[in-house]
Design goal:
The chain has 114 residues and is of the alpha/beta class. The chain has one domain: Rossmann fold. It is built from 4 helices and 4 strands, in the order βαβαβαβα. The N and C termini lie far apart (31 Å).
């Protein structure tokens, strides 16, 4: 893989599994240090971080509920403390609402689209 992102730092929200995990690992393959964010899947997040480290980059795991501004602040602060910079932010977290579209409140819409 190319090392186009060497020395860059990426935060990927919701990256303990699924698409977020795949994005984080791909960023690591390209040389980026990665901040793995999770809300409730600690073991899975650490597994993703280890896969990233296997590509020769640094990876940290940060628990933060990104629907809460104070938690987002904590996530960014930990990333800057660990890596000194943030170059890439991939917002991948969110929840799914299975209700009828005309029954979704604006609060639910905002939560789904964190």
């Amino acid at each position: 893989m190319p090392s186009d992102l060497k020395e860059k730092t990426a935060i990927v929200t919701g990256s303990s599994r699924g698409i977020g995990a795949a994005i984080a690992i791909r960023l690591a393959e390209y040389g980026a240090n990665v901040v793995i964010n999770y809300n409730s899947s600690a073991k899975e997040a650490e597994d993703v971080a280890e896969k990233c480290r296997n590509h020769g980059v640094k990876a940290i795991v940060v628990q933060a509920d990104v629907s809460q501004p104070s938690e987002v602040e904590k996530l960014f602060k930990m990333a800057k403390t660990e890596f000194g910079r943030i170059d890439i932010v991939m917002c991948n977290s969110g929840i799914i609402h299975w209700g009828a579209p005309d029954q979704v409140t604006s609060e639910q819409f905002d939560k789904v689209n964190c």
